[in-house]
Design goal:
Layout lengths: L4 H19 L3 H7 L4 H10 L17 H11 L4 H11 L4 H6 L2 H13 L4 E4 L15 E5 L2 E12 L6 E7 L10 E7 L5 E3 L13 E12 L11 H37 L1 E2 L2 E2 L4 H29 L5 H26 L10 H8 L9 H16 L1
Parallel strand pairs: 1-4
Antiparallel strand pairs: 2-3, 3-7, 4-5, 6-7, 8-9
Helix pairs in contact: 1-4, 4-8, 4-9, 8-9, 8-10, 9-10, 10-11, 10-12
The structure holds coenzyme a persulfide.
Length: 383
């Protein structure tokens, strides 16, 4: 639940101004250079964007889920690369520690994450374990006061900048599925960690991913999240429940931005003697987009409020992520269509959003995984 409307309004208007004045004007530069300039990163730190979800006791802003999605509905109006930079520290990289970590672990890591000086990444995916996360092969074998980690993690967002990884690894290789998996906090400068070269991607330039390779990397036993083996898969799933609501909010924000651009274009672009926005076939695309955005926005806020109420949200998070990401893809396609030939040209910027948005249907669980989660939950409830 929103705790203090007035404070939240100030935060939201600060983010909106930052998006308008600093991020949007730099989108093109970031797309060309594949780098977010250091001064913008510093401003993101100053506004507190890295600490949005971290409790006040550890130096963050302690936003509720509803407040977090409202913040993302603002931040997400700029290129998704900006959100990506804070996304893992605000979300999947820190939340495992927050949800299941010991007090000592929280005190050691969360305050530095809240300032944005320590970037957290989430290391679950592997070359042969993507959607089937429970089949991961990376091992963490106990050896005295440490675990020895071996394996490769793939497509790890923010790995090139990370100071710490939330790592899922198999502590019990005799158990093939989820039960043998544990979660660790691993300092990125630990001996035995190396990074692959940065992945070249279809879109979201400025957001960086790469492989993270562990070769006999010793992780102190004190860094086992919660101090208990075998709980890492559940930690990851709980983290993803929350992350999926966050991503759904970003999908809504990106769709709103694209629709704004398409609407403006339709109002000024003239063909056959009048603005193309006067043609009903263009209006249909605008109207369908508006209605679908409204539906997704309502879903996102509802799922967030349910989580704040302490209700289970696995189904709602997957529904919101599924619908919002697919909706965003449709809106991206229509926006390019409304722009016509200009939509295909880089200088108009809309093709960049079209490419950026394609990732939403894939990461933090593909559309097909969301379908599977939703249907399974329904069948489980019936039983
Ligand atoms: N919250 C808490 N616990 C959960 C959970 C959730 N959301 N989802 C599953 N679990 C628990 C289950 O209850 C089960 O525990 P028990 O055996 O004690 O009942 C355990 O975790 C294993 O779950 P399940 O049997 O459902 O695992 P599966 O391997 O069959 O499938 C899916 C799990 C497919 C849902 C999972 O692997 C997944 O989400 N994959 C996509 C991964 C992903 O999103 N990757 C993106 C990269 S990270 S950016």
């Amino acid at each position: 639940m929103i705790r203090e409307q007035e404070t939240l309004n100030i935060l939201l208007s600060n983010i909106a101004r930052f998006v308008r004045e600093r991020l949007i004007p730099n989108e093109d530069l970031i797309a060309r250079t594949d780098e977010i300039p250091a001064d913008i990163v510093a401003e993101m730190q100053d506004i507190g964007l890295f600490g949005l979800t971290i409790p006040e006791a550890y130096g963050g802003l302690e936003l509720t889920m509803e407040e977090e999605v409202r913040a993302m509905l603002e931040l997400g109006r700029a290129s998704p690369a900006f959100r990506s930079l804070i996304g893992t520290t605000v979300g999947i990289g820190s939340q495992g520690i927050l949800l299941d970590g010991t007090e000592e672990q929280k005190q050691r890591y969360l305050p530095r994450m809240a300032t944005g000086r320590l970037i957290a990444s989430f290391a679950l995916t592997e070359p042969e374990a993507g959607s089937d996360a429970a089949s991961l092969k990376t091992t963490a074998i106990r050896d005295g006061g440490a675990y020895v980690v071996n394996g490769t993690k793939r497509f790890i967002t923010n790995a090139p900048h990370a100071g710490v990884f939330t790592l899922m690894a198999r502590t019990d290789p005799s158990r093939a599925g989820a039960d043998g998996i544990s979660a660790f906090i691993v300092d990125a400068d630990s001996p035995g960690i190396s990074l692959g070269k940065r992945d070249r991607k279809m879109g979201q330039q400025g957001a960086h991913t790469c492989d993270v390779i562990f070769e006999n990397c010793r992780v102190p036993a004190a860094n086992l999240i919660g101090g208990v083996e075998g709980r890492g898969f559940k930690t990851a799933m709980k983290v993803l429940d929350k992350g999926r609501i966050h991503i759904a909010a970003i999908c809504v924000a990106v769709a709103e931005r694209m629709l704004d651009e398409a609407l403006r274009y339709a109002a000024q672009r003239r063909q056959f003697g009048r603005a193309i926005g006067e043609f009903q076939l263009i209006q249909a695309m605008l109207a369908d987009s508006k209605a679908e955005i409204y539906a997704a926005r309502s879903m996102v806020i509802d799922a967030a409020c349910r989580r704040d109420d302490g209700l289970p949200v696995t189904t709602e998070a997957s529904c919101a992520k599924l619908f919002a990401s697919e909706m965003c893809g449709r809106v991206a396609d229509r926006a390019v269509q409304i722009f016509g030939g200009a939509g295909y040209m880089s200088e108009y910027g809309i093709e960049r959003f079209y490419r950026d948005a394609r990732l939403f249907r894939i990461y933090e669980g593909t559309t097909q995984i969301q379908q599977l989660v939703i249907a399974r939950q329904m069948l489980r409830e019936l039983a």
